[in-house]
Amino acid sequence: MEISKQIKLLIKKYAIYPSKQLGQNFLISSDALRFIQNAVDPVTDKTYIEIGAGFLFCTMLVAEKSKEVIAIEKDKRFIPYYNETVHPRIKIVIGDALKIDFSRYGVTEAFGNIPYNISSPLILKLANTNTVKRTVLLLQKEFARRILAVPDNKDYGAITIFADFFFEKKFLKTFPPHFFYPMPSVSSTLIELKRREVLPDVNKSILFRIVRGAFSQRRKTLFNALKRDFNVVQLKKAFADAGLPLNIRGESLSLNDFLKIAKWFEKHL
Q: How many whole angstroms separate alpha carbon 138 and alpha carbon 20?
């Protein structure tokens, strides 16, 4: 039976109708599920965390080739289904992935189909979870473009710099809306995030204060956007030391450019 038909039957049987509040769009393409399995590339001696297990279709594919999958699901409506769906290599955890301490499981890799409304806080959580070294995430295409953007691009912003700081990023594939049920209005993109083995040596508080300021007023030059939070004389010296013109805009700076400004202030504040 096609996965789309299976999911619709399960929705009706367990009355788990997709929740807009939870951003639920179930993946119903067997090709896409296999692609994600291959992207996760599970191995038999490793345990994985899944964020948003749903009806366990992707979970079971990864579990086939892994030691175990810690499947996290926030929606308690799935409990009756899980109680009747036994798999020896799947451990169900009912709870909010944003509140669960991933490090307690000693797992180094994670994957999931992520609702748009938790995408930003999840990236923040993963960045601050040292134990998770690699993650494969299916994100709304527009959000994935922001993560993967390069300087001088309209999608380039604070979340891009934040992700650059913590991760090596890779585009994997984009799936069209009809691969999901209910069908969303936009496509979804699968990306890989690998945690950098060595993070830049900089005061993160200063760096991200500068980054937030740079993108809070995109129409302004970086200098004008920052001068309300930093001493003007010091700003000019920091720009000069970094080799940056005063009329440059924040979206034209790379992570390394922001690091240069932050390191100057780290020495002189």
A: 17
Q: Say if CB 165 and CB 222 are below 8 A apart.
A: no
Domain range list for the chain: 3-195, 204-268
Summarised one tens digit per residue, pLDDT across range 4-39 is 999 999 999 999 999 999 999 999 999 999 999 999
- Please tell me the distance from the alpha carbon of residue 255 to that of residue 96, in angstroms, as a whole number: 31
Please name which of 212, 224, 232 lies closest in space to residue 249, comparing C-alpha atoms.
224
Q: Please report which confidence band the pLDDT of residue 265 belongs to, taking 50, 70 and 90 as the band edges.
A: very high
Report field, pTM of the whole predicted structure over 0.90? yes
Residue pointed to by tokens 């929740």: 19
- The SS3 assignment for 188 reads strand
Is the pLDDT score of 252 beyond 70? yes
CB within 8 Å of 214: residues ≥ 6 apart: 158, 222, 225, 226, 250, 253, 258
Q: What is the CATH number of domain 3-195?
A: 3.40.50.150
Token pair belonging to 22: 């939870």
Note whether 3-195 and 204-268 share their fold: no
Decide the pairing of beta strands 180-181 and 26-27: antiparallel
C-alpha to C-alpha distance for 114 and 23, rounded to whole angstroms: 8
Pick the CATH number of 204-268 from 1.10.8.100, 3.10.150.10, 1.10.150.120, 2.60.40.640: 1.10.8.100
Tell me the mean pLDDT in the region 86-111: 95
Please check whether residue 203 is in contact with residue 266, taking contact to mean a CB–CB distance below 8 angstroms.
Answer: yes
Cβ–Cβ < 8 Å for 113, 54: yes
HSE (side-chain half, CA atoms, 13 Å) at 27: 31
